[in-house]
Specification:
With about 450 residues, the protein is an alpha/beta fold. The protein has helices at about 20-40, 45-60, 60-75, 75-100, 135-145, 160-170, 190-195, 210-220, 245-255, 270-290, 305-320, 375-380, 395-405, 440, and strands at about 5, 15, 105, 115-120, 125, 150-155, 180, 200-205, 225-230, 235, 265-270, 325-330, 345, 365-370, 385, 390, 410-415, 430, 430-435, 445-455. Bound molecules: NADP nicotinamide-adenine-dinucleotide phosphate.
Length: about 450
């Protein structure tokens, strides 16, 4: 795929970029390795100063960055502004807490003194997706740089202007040029970089196939990986839930980011007693959503990022229908220009059909009926993914059962799944492994070094 900015609202090619040559890639890896040797020694106070400056740049120029995001991948502009603000938040969070997360941890043993020290590993390759083109990168880069690592970004090929803008933010914040570099390259260059001894670890946020490929190459080289992959999150509504609130949040949780979020709610599992009412209200709210130009304030759903995503989504809906599903609303691509797809609700989806638990990346919801909590949990867990999960109930016994039995990296009770720098984020099963954010995230790319100091008597003693 060429490295090009193509506006998904109009189909217009905004800019194209030449991919880096092998020689240029080699020079960037060398700069990363050289920079790491000195950067790892910078005191926390200096890293903090630069990271706070990055936060300020994000806050001051958030409207400009938001426009770059929206014109490259189509998210509503207001959501893009919030994304830039959230990036500033994660920079501030790690600027202020990294020294605590990575402070020596004293452990009492038979040694005179023993403790754990957390040291940076070196240049880390980050392979990132287009759907949150700033956030995914900052949630890796802020902890990685605060820990003393240096970063190399291979961003998705359709968001090169976002990738270059992020590199510029870190440079303008005062980080040395080799501390964070964008590599404008295609996915085919990743293998060579993972095999290069100068790169010590990798993180990938993206699809399951990309994760499998990166993890297997890195595995052969015995290099640590963190994988943040897809999801087919359940959103369960039980009889005691506040139905008004559950419906409103359900629609938001399915259609956020034009439906292209790993933690978007994708399967809605509703207690039989309230199913009909939930279905009626949910369909009605989906029909009210305004599709259109993501630059307009009144737009709820903009275009999908690429024509391929629209075609994949359409094919999934057609497969669902072929296996017995009914379309209650939507179900069609809109005529161009732009990659638009109608907000869609599917019912009667066969639980044995693969589409019932695949990741659906667009504004398409599937509704299921459950006659009791055990059936709701069985449907929720009937997927190879395990990223997020949400359950709506005011019954404390039910809450406890959901918390215990949902197979996911997080459980939100009476709320919408969302990331927060203070809480760990990641998945189980085919949604990946490792964690980002909070203390868990900053400790992924460090050497957890045991230090043991004994008494050594002098010869004269
Ligand atoms: P993608 O196609 O897997 O691409 C993600 C990144 O991986 C891009 O930079 C892509 O480069 C690269 N890539 C693709 N195939 C590769 C390969 N075989 N080897 C090395 N690199 C490869 O995913 P996407 O369509 O951009 O993003 C959507 C997916 O990301 C969804 O599955 C979503 O759930 C997941 N996601 C997960 C999280 C999470 O936190 N768990 C967050 C956001 C998104 P090119 O663009 O050059 O192909």
């Amino acid at each position: 795929m060429p490295i090009a900015s193509i506006n998904p609202t109009t189909g217009e090619t905004l800019k194209t970029f030449d991919a880096l040559s092998a020689k240029q890639i080699g020079e960037k890896l060398q700069l990363a390795a050289d920079t790491f040797r000195s950067y790892r020694r910078t005191p926390f106070a200096e890293r903090t100063r630069m990271m706070l400056r990055a936060a300020e740049i994000l806050e001051t120029r958030k409207n400009e960055f938001a426009k770059v995001m929206t014109t490259e991948m189509g998210k509503p502009l207001k959501a893009a502004v919030s994304e830039a603000e959230k990036c500033a938040w994660v920079c501030r969070y790690y600027a202020e807490t990294a020294h605590e997360h990575l402070a020596d941890k004293v452990v009492e043993t038979n040694a005179r003194k023993s403790y754990v020290r957390f040291q940076p590993l070196g240049p880390v390759l980050a392979v990132m997706p287009w759907n949150f083109p700033f956030w995914q990168v900052f949630r890796f880069a802020a902890p990685a740089l605060m820990a003393g690592n240096v970063g190399l970004l291979k961003h998705a090929s359709n968001v090169p202007q976002c990738a270059l803008a992020i590199e510029e933010i870190f440079r303008d914040a005062g980080f040395p040029a080799g501390a964070f570099q964008t590599l404008l390259i295609g996915a085919n260059e990743v293998e060579g970089i993972l095999n290069d001894a100068r790169v010590v670890a990798a993180t990938l946020t993206g699809s399951e196939p990309a994760g499998r490929s990166v993890a297997s190459i890195a595995g052969k080289q015995i290099k640590k990986t963190v994988l943040e992959l897809g999801g087919s999150d359940p959103f369960i509504v039980m009889l005691s839930a506040n139905l008004n609130e559950a419906v409103t949040i359900a629609v938001k949780a399915r259609t956020i980011n034009n439906g292209q979020s790993c933690i978007a709610a994708k399967r809605f599992i509703v207690a039989s007693e309230i199913y009909e009412e939930f279905e009626r209200r949910f369909v009605s709210e989906m029909q009210k959503l305004k599709i259109g130009d993501p630059m307009e304030d009144s737009t709820d759903i903009g275009p999908l990022a690429t024509p391929q995503i629209v075609n994949d989504l359409d094919e999934q809906v057609k497969r669902a229908v072929a296996s017995g599903a009914r379309v209650l609303t939507g179900g069609n691509k809109l005529n161009g220009p732009g990659n638009f797809y109608e907000p869609t609700v599917l019912v009667n989806v066969d639980l044995n059909a693969p589409v019932s638990c695949e990741e659906i990346f667009g504004p398409v919801a599937m509704l299921f009926r459950a006659s009791n909590i055990d059936e709701a949990i069985r449907i929720a867990n009937a997927t190879t993914f395990g990223l997020g999960s949400a359950a709506w109930t005011n019954d404390s016994k039910e809450q406890a059962q959901f918390i215990d039995e949902l197979e996911a990296g997080c459980v939100f009770i009476n709320g919408m799944v969302a990331s927060d720098p203070r809480l760990p984020f990641g998945g189980v099963k085919s949604s990946g492994y490792g964690r980002e954010l909070a203390q868990f995230g900053i400790r992924e790319f460090v050497n957890i070094k045991t230090v043991w100091i004994g008494e050594s008597k002098t010869d004269t003693e």
